[in-house]
Write a structure and sequence with these properties.
The structure holds two protein chains of two kinds. Chain A is mainly beta. Chain A has no helices and eleven strands. In chain B, 0% of the residues lie in helices and 55% in strands. The chains are: A mainly beta, B mainly beta. Chains A and B meet through strand 5, strand 9 and strand 10 of A and strand 5 of B.
Chain lengths: 116, 111
């Protein structure tokens, strides 16, 4: 149990276009979903936290107008990178939190974004 | 100073060796401690978690937390080539809080 999927697994786009990444919890309802970014050989950096039906909470330095997060249901969250630029190229990973107690997070397989 | 520090390695060991991976943290408010394994171009997979100080064992893996010295360890016994991956430690201040990750240690187990 506790499977999280992401789609697409990789995407290449032209500079200036927008890209949407989906994150789904397949076999549980996620109270909270998280979006991370990871550059090569670096750790995961939290971008934002989202709860179903409410606005996402962004980490300091993350542009909320550039990285739009929608948490439409307890099993789906989307990240849209608007007007993407080459410096946005990275590995984007979502995770879904389960339960009210210990906040166990299950990670998706990640999405590799390359902006040309 | 980073809240969670981890030696990035790389660490290379022969098959069958005991592997010791370590992290230190600076925030005494951290209560939950996790170890994740991440294969190349994949998302992290939760291996172990512990609450407060103590040891936890699961098969070949043992997680250890020493809150007095703010030290987190993961031991892998009888290491296998399939254990080759990046291992990330992470800490959590409280329920509902955000995970703070270490940089990750790249481990290579040679046949």
């Amino acid at each position: 149990g506790a499977v999280v999927s992401q789609h697409p697994s990789w995407v290449i786009c032209k500079s200036g276009t927008s890209v949407k990444i989906e994150c789904r919890s397949l076999d549980f309802q996620a109270t909270t979903m998280f979006w991370y970014r990871q550059f090569p050989k670096q750790s995961l950096m939290l971008m934002a936290t989202s709860n179903e039906g409410s606005k996402a909470t962004y980490e300091q330095g993350v542009e909320k107008d550039k990285f739009l997060i929608n948490h439409a249901s307890l099993t789906l969250s989307t990240l849209t990178v608007t007007s993407a630029h080459p410096e946005d190229s990275s590995f984007y990973i979502c995770s879904a939190g389960r339960g009210q107690g210990y906040n166990e997070q299950f990670f998706g397989p990640g999405t590799r974004l390359t902006v040309l | 100073q980073k809240e969670v520090e981890q030696d990035p390695g790389p660490l290379s060991v022969p098959e069958g060796a005991i592997v010791s991976l370590n992290c230190t943290y600076s925030n005494s408010a951290f209560q939950y401690f996790m170890w994740y394994r991440q294969y190349s171009r994949k998302g992290p997979e939760l291996l172990m978690y512990t609450y407060s100080s103590g040891n936890k064992e699961d098969g070949r893996f043992t997680a250890q937390v020493d809150k007095s010295s703010k030290y987190i360890s993961l031991f892998i016994r009888d290491s296998q080539p399939s254990d080759s991956a990046t291992y990330l430690c992470a800490s959590l201040r409280n329920q509902g809080g955000k995970l703070i990750f270490g940089q990750g240690t790249e481990l290579s187990v040679k046949p």
